[in-house]
Structures are given as C-alpha cells and as structure tokens.
User: What shape does this take?
Amino acid sequence: MAETVRMPQLGESVTEGTIGQWLKKVGDTVEKYESLLEVLTDKVNAEVPSPVAGTMSKILVEEGTTVAIDTPICEIAVEGEDAPTDEASEAASASAVAAVDVGNAAPVPDQPAALDNALRGRYSPAVRRLAQETGINPAAVQGTGAGGRVTRNDILAAAEHGPEKSEMVTVTSEVSPPQTAQQAAPSDLAAIAGAAAVVEDADTLVPVTNVRKVIAERMVRSKQTVPHAWLMVEADVTGLVALRERLKDEFKTREGVSLTYMPFMLRAVVEALRAVPIINAQWNGDSIVMKKRINIGMAAATDRGLIVPVIKDADQKNIVGLAKASQDLVKRARTGRLTMDDLTGGTFTVDNTGAVGTVLTYPIINAPEVAIVTMESIIKRPVVVGDMIAIRSMVNICLSFDHRVVDGAEAGQFVGAIKKHLESLTPQTSIY
Assistant: This one.
C-alpha cells in the first residue's frame, strides 16, 4: 500500500507552506524518519520526515508551489509495492498540482477525500489573499501555472500592469478560518518587490532561492506590521571574561562542549524575562498573549540562510544545560538536521551578533514575539570606575521591541536586568 504524506502545519497560525526542495526523488529508498523535503512558511523552515520506510513513488507537488496544510504532497510505497516509473509519477504530479490550484474540477481519481477538502474554492489561499489586497478579480486573469491555474505572480502582474478592476473582489472559502493580523499581512512578493534594480553588462544575476524569499518576506512583513522601537545599554563584563577564562579548558574536558559567552547571555535573558514578563509575550491583534513557558530562539546563520532554532524551557537549565542545548541546536541547524519541534514555540529571540564582530545592531523582531535582543562583541576599553580610569571588558546589549505591547520603561527595565545579571558574575561564580 502507499502512504500519503501531507503538508504539515508548522505553527499554530500557519495555513499553508511552500515546497522548498525535494530531498528525495521518485524511486529513492526512504527510511522511516528520514527527511523527504524542505518546507518554507512565514514562520519556519523545516525538513519533513518520512512517516514510514519504503520507496518514494509519487511527488504530487512541485518545488516552489504553495499549498494549504493537510494537502497530499507525495506518496511512499511501503515494502512489497512497486514504485511507478518516473514518467507515471510526473504525470500524477502534474495532475495533482493542477487539482490543488484549480479547485472547482473534480478531485484526482483515487486521491483521499482530504484532497477534495484542500481544494476549497477555485484558488489557493495565497492567491485569494493577494486578490483581496489588490482588488484584482482572479477570474479575469490568465493563469500561467500548471493546468492554467492562477498564481500569485499572475495576480501581481495584473496589478502592476493596471488591468481594469471590477468591484473589489472578496475571494473566500466556506471553511477557511478567519485571518489573524499576522496572516493578513502583505503578500511576500508584493512586499519585497521594491524598486527595480539597474542591471549593467558586467553585472551578474543570482536567482533568489526559496529560503531567501521566505526570509525577505518575514523581514519586510515584520517591519511593515510591527512598530519597532530600539534601545541599548552597555555592561561591564570583566568578571564574566575572567570566569570563562578560568573555566573554559576544564569545561571542555568535562562537558565535551566549548564554554562560550552565549549560555551566560541566555541565562541573563531568562532572569530578565522573569523580572519583566511583558517581554515574554506575543501580539494577538485584540489581545496580548502572556506566555508561561520561556522558550528562547537563537538566530543561527547557515549556508542556507538564517534559521532560529528554539531552546524549550530555557528557564529550567543552568549554564551547563544552556551551553549544551545551544551548541547542539546550532550544529544541527548548520547540518540540516533540525526537526519541526526545534523550530517552533519560541517566545523570545537572542541574536549573538557579536560573533561576527559587531558592536551595535538594530535587529528585526521575530513576530509575533514582541522583542529581540543582541549580544555584541566584548571590547576592552578605558572606562571611568569611581574616580579612576581603568581598562574593562565592555559589551553592548541592543533591544528591538514592539511598541504596541512594550513601553520604553519596561524595555529599559528588561535590558537593565540583563546588565545587572552579567555584571554580577565574578571569577568565583558557580556555573553548576
């Protein structure tokens, strides 16, 4: 028998996902829990594991295609069932893509009933949303997608070239859930288009990857929908530097991981979130969600783009636990071995921008979180201590915050709590 793999829901408010890259092709052997593909959403990038062992028999949705959650995206033939030829699979794939996006036609024969539910009207959720935003009637647009489907690019092209607009169109489906403020944000392509670049003969055009498109969409959406405010404090971490210098060799031998400054920053953030709980919240349109758990996301640069894995229940870990958890997540992020659980559930984000030598940054909030903090480079410089000038190790702590939720006084209390914790560390402080 064949096992149908469906588009997963990668986050509470996520309604659709984009196929970033297929990691398996038709005919490939698949182990249970082995990654099948990369899925991109406005929340996370994640690899989807196989629910069974077998052979990839059909790919139903092409790379770059956006479909609703629970839509069948591929089939895996379990042991004892022959996989179809590439030609048969390609035909099935094209048929499934057309059915998903065209909609009113009857479902592909022998597909599960859930596929019929996924059709939900004539157009995909992304097209319906964009049609609402632009006022373009999709019925009047010539589709260029598989089976003549209307794509987001078709709607954008129609809006750009200014076709005659009928009365403002509202394209909905009977079962579509109401949009949250986050979901109703501008379309990715519409938001990031901007002014056209000037291309000269000697210039090189580099295609934008799906991951980069999603990153661009997230960043533009956050800046357009969240009123960012910013502040910074500096902290004297001379004691922290001495503590790490004293323990780093022994720590590496005993724990098997390096002792960096990051776990100390994470611990300071945990204490600050406890002291100022409004920072550990999420904007929800007509309400503010005060999060009980403290799940800290860490921005990690990888060769595939920026990824933010999450340390769950960071407040229940000491310095040793935070060091191991953070380094494990970063390592797996850079080798593409993160799970969907690693990428969801964050309530606050920390970015170690100092690792690349910065001393002052203005980070973009990872909505619907309400703040993000950076730890900059630790720099030795002369400062006034009492009535004397001394050489001290100083670091800047930068905070971007959502001014709909957080006021300046609360933001100041938060970074002040981080500063107080970091400055309290001495060479004798216990990390266990």
About this structure: Residues 44 and 343 are 6 Å apart (CA to CA).
